[in-house]
Design brief:
By secondary structure, this protein is an all-alpha fold. The chain contains nine helices and no strands. The protein is globular, with a radius of gyration of 19 Å.
């Protein structure tokens, strides 16, 4: 009988590799260190010189991407699926993240140049260069939320491709998106709406807490509270996006989408 392999098919065969530590139920917090690094770096980027600020934002995007890949892996596993990311060591995860992010950086550069030639405002065009930043951190409301949703969908499909033991290639990802376009289009809309709501709620909470942390007696913990608030919402945003994408893709498979054959 010919074997079929999909990202959402659980394997019952004994594994020949040594499992990478998952820390049991605490794996849901495996993304927190990466989000914390991104949050702290982002807070210092504003006061850095231009060159260092650009490097800092690249590191922020890389940290958010690694957190996103780990969250995608865990969410797929919770959906009774499997990915080969679980087999990767820490160094291999970083290598996979780098192979993914340089493709996105080229895409961001192309999108930024296209927006500039099209007469889009410089601020908006520059934002297109920081696609992963918007997954975890609030941006201006509007069409930028849709751009973030598109980037998140493409990054998620890279995890799906890796789960099928395929090399991370942009054309393969676009092909998979086209295959599941019906459900992923809805996912894009729901992610955009989710980001709009999350950004609004985060802004309102920040406004309400501002008078409290402006008091002299809490000035020492103001920065820590600021980091904690941003970190908490980055965690909610990240997992909310991944949950929507996982549900959409699983629904697509259940609707009878084509399944790739194992080689």
């Amino acid at each position: 009988m010919e074997a079929l392999e999909t990202t959402y098919a659980s394997s019952r065969a004994p594994r020949a590799y040594r499992a990478w530590p998952t820390y049991g139920p605490y794996l849901l917090f495996q993304t927190v260190p990466w989000l914390l690094v991104a949050t702290v770096l982002r807070s210092y980027v504003r006061v850095m010189p231009t060159g260092l600020a650009l490097l800092g934002m690249m590191l922020v995007q890389f940290a958010v991407l690694i957190a996103f890949l780990l969250a995608s892996q865990k969410m797929i596993e919770l959906a009774k699926g499997s990915t080969s990311l679980a087999r990767l060591s820490f160094r291999e995860q970083l290598a996979f993240g780098w192979r993914v992010i340089w493709r996105f950086l080229l895409l961001f550069l192309l999108a930024t140049c296209t927006a500039n030639f099209a007469g889009v405002g410089e601020f908006l065009a520059a934002r297109l260069w920081l696609g992963f930043d918007g997954i975890a951190f609030p941006w201006r409301q509007g069409l930028l939320q849709l751009w973030i949703a598109i980037i998140a969908t493409m990054a998620f499909m890279f995890v799906v491709e890796k789960g099928q033991e395929r090399a991370p290639r942009l054309l393969s990802v676009l092909r998979e998106i086209a295959l599941h376009r019906r459900h992923l289009m809805w996912a894009l809309l729901f992610i955009s709406l989710f980001l709009v709501i999350a950004t609004f709620v985060q802004g309102q909470i920040a406004i309400m807490l501002a008078p409290v942390f402006d008091r002299p007696e809490v000035s020492r913990v103001r920065y820590l509270a600021y980091i904690a608030l941003i970190l908490a919402f980055s965690y909610i945003r990240l997992w909310g996006i991944v949950a929507i994408l996982t549900y959409a893709l699983r629904a697509s498979y259940r609707r009878g989408s084509q399944m790739p054959e194992a080689e």
